[in-house]
Amino acid sequence: MVLTRIDSSRNVRRFYRMEIVPGLFGDWGLVREWGRIGRDGQVRTDWFASETDAKDACFKLHMAKAKRGYE
């Protein structure tokens, strides 16, 4: 899932990408990448015991980003 936030008047061009991936040991990772559009972003992976936990965390982050103007 890729979210963007663009506000030309404030020179804001940001992206936020989330992906749920399986781990090697039965765990699940939520990979997040964020930064300025057109540049390399920062990457962070959070690990969860189940796919459901990872999906819940992804949904919470999506709602938080939507409140900040990401679409």
Describe what this molecule looks like in 3D.
This protein is α+β, with helices and mostly antiparallel strands and 71 residues long. It has 1 helix and 4 strands. A 4-stranded antiparallel sheet has the order 1-2-3-4, with helices on one face. Strand 1 and strand 2 form a beta hairpin. The protein is elongated. The chain starts with a strand and ends with a helix. The mean pLDDT is 96.
List the helices and strands and how they pair.
Elements: E1 2-7, E2 12-22, E3 28-36, E4 42-48, H1 51-67
Antiparallel strand pairs: 1-2, 2-3, 3-4
Biggest β-sheet, characterized?
A: 4 strands, antiparallel
Treating each run of at least 4 consecutive H or I residues as one helix, how many helices? 1
Number of strands: 4
What is the helix fraction of residues, given as a range?
A: 10-25%
Strand order in the sheet with the most strands: 1-2-3-4
Mean pLDDT: 96
Q: Report the principal-axis shape.
A: elongated
Any idea what the radius of gyration is?
Answer: 13 Å
Distance between the termini: 10 Å
Structural class: alpha+beta
In short:
The chain has one helix at 51-67; strands at 2-7, 12-22, 28-36, 42-48. By secondary structure, it is α+β, with helices and mostly antiparallel strands.
Q: Which terms would index this structure?
A:
single chain; about 70 residues; alpha+beta; 4-stranded antiparallel β-sheet; 1 helix; 4 strands; elongated
